[in-house]
Amino acid sequence: MKILNIKINSFGKLQNKEIELKDNINIIYGKNESGKSTMLKFMIGMFYGLSKNKNGKFTSDYERYLPWKKEEFSGKITYELDNKEEFQIFREFKKKNPKIYNSNLEDISKKFHIDKNNGNQFFYEQTKVDEELFISTIVSEQEQVKLNEKTQNTLVQKMANLVGTGDDNISFNKIIAKLNKKQLEEVGTLRSQDRPINTVTKKLEEIEKELKYLQEYTNKKSQIEETKQQYKKEIKEQEQEIEILNKLKQIKEKEEIEKQKIQINKKIEKDYDEKIKKIDEQLEQIEAKKNNKITNTKFAKIVLPITCILLIISLILFIYINKIASIITVLFTITYFAIQSYKQHMNKMLIKQVQKQQNVEKSKLKNEIDIIENTKNNQKRELEKMENELNSIVKIELQKLKLDYQILSNDIDELYKKDINKDIDKLIKHINETKLKEHLLEIDKQNINTKLENLSQLEEKKEELKTRLNELEFNNNSINLAKEEIQKAYEEMKQNITPKFTQELSTIISNISNSKYNNVKFDEENGIIVEIENGDYISANNLSIGTIDQLYLSLRLSTISQISQEKLPIILDEAFAYYDDERLKNIFTFLNKQYKDRQIIIFSCTNREKETLDNLNLRYNFVTMDS
To answer: Does pLDDT of 572 surpass 50?
Structure first.
């Protein structure tokens, strides 16, 4: 890949600036504060955009490079990939996404993935290099190499990081130390105290103990609830039984009413019998009176013999004793006979009259008996009808009740025979006793609820703690897994990638240093070590600042070929500040020879680079920021 043209409409302090870049070496010259670093930031911003996040800085990149006076905040960059495809990128920095044109000037912006946070990912899809990797490898910025003696250890550490982990900002030992610290502070161990996992475990144990204690009350509450349900079921069954009994009672009451009606009718029937009996008695009395009269008539028939006897006596008296006595006796006898004869006549007349009245009365009474008998028979038939209807109605009602409540015939018959009121009273009493028991259980339950008020909160707290413990264990496992993976990656890096880095690094430093340093190694304990001319190895910390700069640049150059299939440009911003003339000559000779197929862009505020290239008679493209 190579950059062909940069056009800045307005970006930071740069206005209406356009430059053309060529193959291989390009020098962009400008005095200090002329805008070289702004130009570099523009190039990076065109590929990746400008972040509005401060990320710990005083101002964001967007705020830093936003022009003060002009509303225009845009530019364009033209570049060509290794396959010769040419692209033009126009970006209005106030908008998140740029416009992307192909060589036919067709807008192909939508062909690339658009991230909602970072915008269009066209450059990453083309090169597989993100902004962070681009800056840490492709670009060597001024502040990264201008280190004084006091801070040279930082650069040495960066080189050790790059060789050991593939990133100059990442140290394996520091990563592991940070992870261990993070693990201890955010999780803790079984041996630690007052760490999150210790605190959570301790609280969880306390809650478990309290919950175990409260569980007894929970079980008791469960038993109470179970008993209450049994009571409720029992009450419901008994209330249904009362309901059945009440309906039976209603049937029975109806039956009793009908029976009373029947009894009344039976009583009426008896009354009819009584009336007939009385009439019969009256008839008997009439007959008795008749017999009485007949008896009196017979008595009159006795008078004649008595009269005859008296006459005989008077005759004897007349003959043998006294005529006067005889006459008196005769007179008495005649008088007696006359009186008795008259009585007999009157009695006969009376008997005839009485018999006539009796016959009338007897006829009347017999008619009355007939009427009563007919009424009685009708009443009897009605009574039988009522009894039959009553039996039928009772059977129907009992059958309906049996079907409604699914009761066996024998059971319903037995219930019907019992004293229903007594059974109802008994059931009501039992229900009231059961309700009292239920109420007492409810009081016990409320007392238990008082003790269990915090149970749900404890359960919630327990679940929260368990969740927190799971999170801590997950975090702990994640950190352990991360350490394992980092260890594996580190070991793989040391075995596979680090040797390639160190071999490439050794070749580069040998060329740059005129074979003064031919062999560079990475030692886990000592970091980067360099073989000196006598064959001994010394730590990179013991090298001069200039040599360390050479070593660091060599290391970054050795990583460029590894990060992308595209031959990305090498961008150096004031990278040779600590190079003497010999080192500068060597690095340009090496760059020209080793990276003929790459575009090299050098930002410089001096003419040293230009003069050295001229002295070496090497071709280059010179661009000045002042024009």
So the answer is: yes
Residues 204 and 78 reside in one and the same domain: no
Q: Residue range 81-85: average pLDDT?
A: 95
- Given 379, 404, 423, the domain boundary residue is 423
Average pLDDT value for residue range 69-88: 92
Q: Which residues pair with 537 in a beta bridge?
A: 531
**pLDDT value of position 448:** 67
Q: Answer with the residue of higher pLDDT: 409 or 101.
A: 101
Domain count, the chain: 2
| Average confidence (pLDDT) over 455-464 | 79
Count CA atoms closer than 13 A to 334's CA, side-chain side: 5
d(CA 576, CA 550): 9
String of DSSP letters for 301-341:
HHHHHHHHHHHHHHHHIIIII-HHHHHHHHHHHHHHHHHHH
Asked, for residue 523, whether it belongs to a domain, the answer is no
In this structure, the answer to whether residues 123 and 205 fall within a common structural domain is no
Query: If residue 28 lies in a helix (H) or strand (E), which one and from where to where?
Result: strand 25-29
| Gap between the Cα atoms of 173 and 17, Å rounded | 46
Decide if 408 is inside a domain.
Answer: yes
Residue 433 placed within a domain: no
64 burial type by CB count under 10 A (0-12 exposed, 13-18 middle, 19+ buried) = middle
